[in-house]
Write a structure and sequence with these properties.
- With 125 residues, the protein is mainly alpha-helical.
- The protein is 74% helix and 0% strand.
- It has six helices and no strands.
Length: 125
């Protein structure tokens, strides 16, 4: 990152983490977080989260983060009115399903899940 090349830094991190243990779900999770939050690449982030989820399907953090990514990205795409209508609806539906699974595994996530899917008023916090 010191060189200002965030893309190269992310890919280097991913390569090193996966080389240490390619079956380590957390390496894929953190790769996804950086792709989403720092590089604003939701499609590649979703792919990395999916890899993490295959490795650790009951990890509520992965379920929540991927679900939130899919729901918020679908909402943004819908607001932009792009040609991805059906894909956007499917993405939102999958995101909501993943968020539900995360909340089942960790009921303390329920308020965050409701906030992401937009069914809870901010006044309720």
């Amino acid at each position: 990152l010191r060189d200002g090349n965030a893309h190269a830094a992310v890919e280097t991190f991913a390569a090193v983490a996966k080389a240490c243990d390619p079956e380590w779900a957390e390496a894929h999770r953190w790769h996804a977080k950086v792709l989403d939050k720092a590089l604003h690449d939701p499609d590649r982030a979703a792919e990395a989260y999916d890899k993490a989820l295959v490795l650790d399907p009951k990890n509520y953090a992965i379920l929540f983060e991927l679900g939130a990514l899919l729901v918020t990205d679908a909402r943004a795409q819908a607001m932009l009115g792009g040609a991805r209508g059906l894909e956007t609806a499917e993405r939102a539906s999958r995101g909501a399903e993943l968020l539900g699974r995360a909340a089942e595994l960790n009921p303390l996530l329920q308020p965050k899940v409701l906030q992401v899917i937009g069914t809870r008023d901010d006044d309720d916090f």
